[in-house]
Request: fold
Amino acid sequence: MLDTNIIISAILFPKSIITEIVKHVIINHKIVLSQYSITEINEVFDRKFPHRVNEMEIFMKKLPYELFTTKEIGNKKYPKIRDIDDIPILANAIESYVDLLITGDKDFSEVIIKRPKIMNPREYVNEYMDNSRQTSV
Reply:
């Protein structure tokens, strides 16, 4: 699973290492995105980058992904995370049974969990860019 901040960075900075990571994920893994992330991406672009909404829409139409929607997360217990606004992303990553969650959000670095493996972009590059194992991201 790719966190919202990864997708937004890839759209805004098409020549960045984040974009290279997304390309690598597309080729070597199956991308899973949560409905929450897609909604969040749209809200961020509407609020902060309205002049780039068209770029976002084109990117999202071309991005191959499987959509995952968690029915309800309110009553379930999830690992502790500092920013409660990140619970929907964490919950979707857990409930969708993905192998990896790639995020640039430092709040996730404190989450203690076996699955999914939570990685920042640098960790992904170090572990996977030369490795073509199939996993769900």
Q: What stands out?
A: The beta strands are 32-34, 66-68, 100-102, 117-119. The mean pLDDT is 91.
